[in-house]
Each structure stands twice: as C-alpha cells, then as structure tokens.
Write a sequence for this structure.
C-alpha cells in the first residue's frame, strides 16, 4: 500500500498515529482506484487520475484533509472531461516530501505488488 510521505511522526504533520493510518488508507484507496500517471515537476508533483464523479469527490476530500493537516503543501485540482489533475507543490525545504510523494505513487511499483 502506498504511504503518504508526510506522516512521519515529525513536525511536518499534525495527525496522530491513528489519524495517519486512516489517511494512508484513504490515500491508497484513491491511488489504487484511479491514478493513471504522475510527473515530478521542478517545484512539485502532478498526479493524473481518471475522471469519474465518485473519484473526483474522493480526490477533493483527500486534498482538503491534507491541506488542513499539512499546511506546507499547496494543492491545485483541475478537472477536465478526461482527467482529474492534482498539482502538489511545497517550499524548497520540503522537497524531500515531494520526492517521497512521487515515489509513493509509482505505478510500476504498485503493479508489482498486486
């Protein structure tokens, strides 16, 4: 199961252990159900999900939850006819978290564990 990189028990996130476990389940569910592609950009990560209404609601809910507990991340959700695009950015000193997010959404890695 992909793990959100921000829930490391440090000062980066204000979730307790139980909250982090629930959030990781929520994150893994959204990734498993609809992530189609990802790209590491110079200042962030772009996640592309298939577009359907149920997944869009869940992606927006996840983004809302993450925005509230991990204020250093910035999220931009753009919905097209074919895709749900989520652009995630963070300050330069949090670049390792963006790298970890990119790794946690590795499609080939996910397929090997199925």
């Amino acid at each position: 199961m992909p793990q959100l990189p921000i829930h490391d028990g440090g000062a980066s996130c204000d979730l307790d252990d139980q909250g982090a476990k629930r959030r990781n389940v929520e994150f893994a569910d959204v990734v498993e159900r609809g992530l189609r592609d990802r790209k590491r950009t110079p200042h962030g990560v772009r996640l592309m999900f298939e577009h359907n209404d149920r997944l869009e609601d869940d992606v927006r809910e996840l983004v809302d939850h993450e925005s509230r507990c991990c204020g250093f991340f910035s999220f931009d959700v753009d919905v097209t006819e074919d895709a749900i695009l989520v652009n995630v950015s963070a300050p330069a000193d949090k670049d390792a978290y963006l790298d970890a997010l990119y790794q946690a959404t590795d499609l080939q890695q996910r397929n090997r564990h199925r």
About this structure: The CA atoms of residues 103 and 109 lie 9 Å apart. The two ends are 10 Å apart (CA to CA). The chain has a mean pLDDT of 83. The first strand starts at residue 35 and ends at 41.
